[in-house]
Specification:
This protein is an alpha/beta fold. The chain has four helices and five strands, in the order βαβαβαββα. The chain has a five-stranded mixed beta sheet. The longest helix is centred in the middle third of the chain and has 16 residues. It is globular, with a radius of gyration of 12 Å.
Amino acid sequence: MSTLKNVTDNSFEQDVLKSNIPVLVDFWAEWCGPCKMIAPILEEVSSQYSGKLTIAKINIDDNAQTPSKFGIRGIPTLILFKNGNLEASKVGALSKSQLCAFLDSHL
Protein backbone atom coordinates (compact mmCIF):
# COMPACT_ATOMS: atom_id res chain seq x y z
CA MET A 1 0.00 0.00 0.00
CA SER A 2 1.32 3.40 -0.95
CA THR A 3 1.80 5.92 1.84
CA LEU A 4 2.32 8.87 -0.52
CA LYS A 5 0.55 11.90 0.88
CA ASN A 6 -0.06 15.33 -0.60
CA VAL A 7 0.53 18.13 1.90
CA THR A 8 -0.10 21.87 1.77
CA ASP A 9 1.14 24.92 3.66
CA ASN A 10 -1.92 24.49 5.90
CA SER A 11 -1.45 20.77 6.61
CA PHE A 12 2.37 20.74 6.77
CA GLU A 13 2.67 21.13 10.53
CA GLN A 14 0.12 18.40 11.29
CA ASP A 15 1.15 15.97 8.52
CA VAL A 16 4.91 16.38 8.71
CA LEU A 17 6.16 18.11 11.86
CA LYS A 18 3.74 16.33 14.23
CA SER A 19 4.01 12.91 12.55
CA ASN A 20 4.96 10.06 14.87
CA ILE A 21 7.06 8.43 12.14
CA PRO A 22 9.72 10.04 9.90
CA VAL A 23 8.41 11.92 6.85
CA LEU A 24 10.29 12.40 3.58
CA VAL A 25 8.95 15.54 1.89
CA ASP A 26 9.31 15.95 -1.86
CA PHE A 27 9.26 19.64 -2.85
CA TRP A 28 8.19 19.55 -6.51
CA ALA A 29 6.38 21.39 -9.32
CA GLU A 30 4.30 20.33 -12.32
CA TRP A 31 6.77 21.84 -14.83
CA CYS A 32 9.86 20.13 -13.34
CA GLY A 33 11.25 17.26 -15.46
CA PRO A 34 13.43 15.68 -12.74
CA CYS A 35 10.43 15.84 -10.36
CA LYS A 36 8.44 13.72 -12.83
CA MET A 37 11.37 11.28 -13.11
CA ILE A 38 11.55 10.71 -9.35
CA ALA A 39 7.75 10.46 -8.80
CA PRO A 40 7.41 6.72 -9.67
CA ILE A 41 10.50 5.96 -7.55
CA LEU A 42 8.93 7.72 -4.56
CA GLU A 43 5.73 5.74 -5.14
CA GLU A 44 7.68 2.46 -5.15
CA VAL A 45 9.76 3.37 -2.10
CA SER A 46 6.66 4.47 -0.16
CA SER A 47 5.37 0.89 -0.33
CA GLN A 48 8.76 -0.55 0.60
CA TYR A 49 9.07 1.64 3.71
CA SER A 50 5.40 1.45 4.70
CA GLY A 51 5.04 1.76 8.48
CA LYS A 52 8.59 3.10 8.88
CA LEU A 53 8.26 6.26 6.79
CA THR A 54 5.65 8.50 5.20
CA ILE A 55 6.46 10.13 1.89
CA ALA A 56 4.78 13.49 1.37
CA LYS A 57 4.70 15.73 -1.68
CA ILE A 58 4.26 19.49 -1.62
CA ASN A 59 3.75 21.47 -4.82
CA ILE A 60 5.89 24.61 -4.51
CA ASP A 61 3.74 26.55 -6.99
CA ASP A 62 0.57 26.04 -4.94
CA ASN A 63 2.23 26.34 -1.52
CA ALA A 64 4.78 29.16 -1.31
CA GLN A 65 5.18 29.50 2.48
CA THR A 66 6.67 26.11 3.35
CA PRO A 67 9.41 26.03 0.66
CA SER A 68 10.56 29.52 1.66
CA LYS A 69 10.69 28.47 5.34
CA PHE A 70 13.16 25.73 4.44
CA GLY A 71 15.14 27.74 1.88
CA ILE A 72 14.18 25.58 -1.11
CA ARG A 73 16.11 26.86 -4.14
CA GLY A 74 16.16 23.88 -6.50
CA ILE A 75 13.69 21.09 -7.11
CA PRO A 76 13.17 18.32 -6.58
CA THR A 77 14.37 18.77 -3.01
CA LEU A 78 13.82 15.86 -0.63
CA ILE A 79 13.89 16.65 3.08
CA LEU A 80 13.64 13.99 5.76
CA PHE A 81 11.94 15.11 8.96
CA LYS A 82 12.16 13.13 12.21
CA ASN A 83 10.27 14.21 15.34
CA GLY A 84 9.50 17.54 13.70
CA ASN A 85 13.14 18.29 12.93
CA LEU A 86 14.96 18.50 9.62
CA GLU A 87 17.16 15.40 9.67
CA ALA A 88 18.69 15.40 6.16
CA SER A 89 18.10 16.69 2.65
CA LYS A 90 19.01 15.98 -0.97
CA VAL A 91 18.53 18.16 -4.04
CA GLY A 92 17.95 16.65 -7.48
CA ALA A 93 16.47 13.43 -8.78
CA LEU A 94 17.89 10.27 -7.24
CA SER A 95 17.84 6.71 -8.49
CA LYS A 96 15.95 4.17 -6.40
CA SER A 97 19.21 2.78 -4.98
CA GLN A 98 20.47 6.29 -4.10
CA LEU A 99 17.16 7.13 -2.44
CA CYS A 100 17.12 3.89 -0.42
CA ALA A 101 20.75 4.41 0.66
CA PHE A 102 19.90 7.97 1.74
CA LEU A 103 16.87 6.77 3.73
CA ASP A 104 18.64 3.78 5.27
CA SER A 105 21.48 5.98 6.52
CA HIS A 106 19.02 8.29 8.34
CA LEU A 107 16.21 6.02 9.55
